[in-house]
């Protein structure tokens, strides 16, 4: 149980390889929304990369070209998406809005004269949602509280000296504090006003997204209930209106849930494998849309208004967002994430056979048995594995950073500061060449130590996330389903 699944899988494959019979069955076919699972997993990994690497390289927050020193390659637009954790959070909300509503929206379209399936689906989804969100959190924060109480130096604070779980005077105090914090977090009636009153759990500051997630889930369920008997154009207008209203008022997170609901219905009304449009044109449009989405999702955390590629965009926002860098960034990365998911959704099929026919000039435009081009990024084995452990990865990445990464960052930071002091002395004495060489050597040493720390920290995080997924998250899902079966009336 304490070994990650990828280790045990390799072990079993090695043991049984000599006796294994050739596979005769076809590989299991993925669902049409498998790419969203992979996208969620990759987004969770990027959130971790964001929170880890910005501890070591805070300059990554700045936009490329916003100052003379901001010229690192990973500050460039599009490449920035690889470490833009805030953009990944917007992806989470769109995926939730889509996945939570697709089954019910499908039932609405199939049950034109009966609302039984729709109401049954809504009741089950709404009943299960809080258990699915909060059961793993109860366990993860309880483990964190136990570790915090067990030793005063298990978790290492950030360079500013805070952001770690509190250690109380006794086990009893620790328990009651954890219980109080948990009660506040799971309260379904607390006010969540956009990002103006965010509250991170004392045992995991990254859990600020969960009340937002629950609020958005309830909202899309209510919208589906309100419009389940209406004409579909009325449903479209109503949901888009609700999303637009919330966006203008500054709650773009909830708008993203509405977008997810709209995209779910759009996938039924306008099938993603539509053959009326030339495939080459669809490739061009979806790839361009994906690149544009990545550019917008690259809006920097700091100095966006002075960064090339974003200067004009910084002023093209609704009134609520103007004059505030965080709000401007939230607006544009949200727009970018919408475009990116839309591009994935309508990316056309591509395969080696299609390219061969294209070269030969015999392509008829008919779909073959290939896979959508852009979705391939998220349907491979690694992305799908990330999708499986994505929730555990999100729950544990912060604590592992404080357990491992920051333990190495503090001495590295002290060494770097000492080097800077010596380098500044050389510059003051006029030894500029020696100072440049010393800075290059110090940067090289810092980079190597960061790389090894990142690898070790990532190894531990994957191990912990895999074990927690199999030991807690999977059972939380099963328990949630059983509770739903026991509690909901049978027909």
Automatic annotation (TrEMBL):
GO terms for molecular function: acyltransferase activity, transferring groups other than amino-acyl groups. The keyword Cytoplasm does not apply. Keywords: Acyltransferase, Membrane, Transferase, Transmembrane, Transmembrane helix. It comes from the Eukaryota. Residues 34-467 form the Acyltransferase domain. The chain crosses the membrane at residues 38-57, 89-112, 133-156, 207-226, 331-350. InterPro entries: Acyl_transf_3_dom (IPR002656), Acyltransferase_3 (IPR050879). This is Acyltransferase.
């Amino acid at each position: 149980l304490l070994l990650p699944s990828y280790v045990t899988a390799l072990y079993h494959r090695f043991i049984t390889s000599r006796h294994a019979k050739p596979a005769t069955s076809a590989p299991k076919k993925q669902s049409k929304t498998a790419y969203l699972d992979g996208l969620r997993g990759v987004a969770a990994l990027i959130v971790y990369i964001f929170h880890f690497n910005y501890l070591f390289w805070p300059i990554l927050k700045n936009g490329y070209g916003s100052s003379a020193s901001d010229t690192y390659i990973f500050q460039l637009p599009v490449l920035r998406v690889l470490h833009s954790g805030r953009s990944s959070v917007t992806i989470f909300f769109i995926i939730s809005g889509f996945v939570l509503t697709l089954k019910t929206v499908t039932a609405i379209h199939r049950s034109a004269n009966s609302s039984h399936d729709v109401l049954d689906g809504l009741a089950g989804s709404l009943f299960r949602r809080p258990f699915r969100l909060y059961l793993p959190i109860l366990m993860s924060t309880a483990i964190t509280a136990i570790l915090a109480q067990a030793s005063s130096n298990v978790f290492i604070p950030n360079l500013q000296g805070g952001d770690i779980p509190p250690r109380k005077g006794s086990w009893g105090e620790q328990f009651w504090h954890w219980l109080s914090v948990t009660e506040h977090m799971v309260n379904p009636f607390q006010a969540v006003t956009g990002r103006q009153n965010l509250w991170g759990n004392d045992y995991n500051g990254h859990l600020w997204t969960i009340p937002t997630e629950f609020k958005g889930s309830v909202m899309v369920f209510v919208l589906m209930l309100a419009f389940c008997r209406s004409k579909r154009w009325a449903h479209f207008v109503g949901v888009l209106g609700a999303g637009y209203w919330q966006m203008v008022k500054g709650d773009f997170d909830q708008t993203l849930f509405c977008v997810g609901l709209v995209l779910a219905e759009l996938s039924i009304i306008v099938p993603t494998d539509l053959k009326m449009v030339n495939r080459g044109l669809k490739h061009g449009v979806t790839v361009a849309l994906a690149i544009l989405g990545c550019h917008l999702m690259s809006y920097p955390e700091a100095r966006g208004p002075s960064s090339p590629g974003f200067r004009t965009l910084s002023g093209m926002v609704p009134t609520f967002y103007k004059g505030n860098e965080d709000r401007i960034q939230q607006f544009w990365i949200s727009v970018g994430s919408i475009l990116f998911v839309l591009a994935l959704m309508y990316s056309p099929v591509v395969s080696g056979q299609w390219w061969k026919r294209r070269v030969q000039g015999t392509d008829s435009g008919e779909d073959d048995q290939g896979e959508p081009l852009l979705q391939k990024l998220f349907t491979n084995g690694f992305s799908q594995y990330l999708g499986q452990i994505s929730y555990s990865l999100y729950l544990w990445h912060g604590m592992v950073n404080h357990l491992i990464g920051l333990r190495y960052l503090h001495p590295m930071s002290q060494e770097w500061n000492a080097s800077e002091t010596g380098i500044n002395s050389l510059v003051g004495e006029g030894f500029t060449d020696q100072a440049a060489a010393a800075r290059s050597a110090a940067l090289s040493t810092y980079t190597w130590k960061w790389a090894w720390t990142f690898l070790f920290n990532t190894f531990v995080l994957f191990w912990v996330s895999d074990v927690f997924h199999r030991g807690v998250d999977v059972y939380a899902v099963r328990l949630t389903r059983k509770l739903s079966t026991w509690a909901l009336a049978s027909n």
